[in-house]
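Chapter review: from sequence to fold.
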Amino acid sequence: MAKRPRINFSANHFRDSYRAEIDALKTQTSIMKEFIRMQMNIEFKANSDIREVLEKTYRLIYEQIDNNWQEFPKADVASEVTKRDIQNHGVGSDENKVHELKDIE
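The token string follows.
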């Protein structure tokens, strides 16, 4: 929708009212541009904060998936898996498992 200047035809000078309306329109457009620029900056900052939180969350998830984030050292993972397997299923008559259990402890 086009915005046209309002002209006061009863005034003495056509040029002064036209210039005043043009200045008012320029001021309004500059204010609107500044509001839009401010809104874009606010949205960019909010999106950056959300992106940082998501990146940190995904990094922690992937570290946990890759076993980089554990309570015990990464070198003990194999012995821990063996120990838990023996605890869950028992040793039975398997001599190798008995020796493995003695070596772990």
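Two observations follow directly from the output. Residues 14-65 form the longest helix (52 residues). DSSP finds three helices and no strands in the chain.
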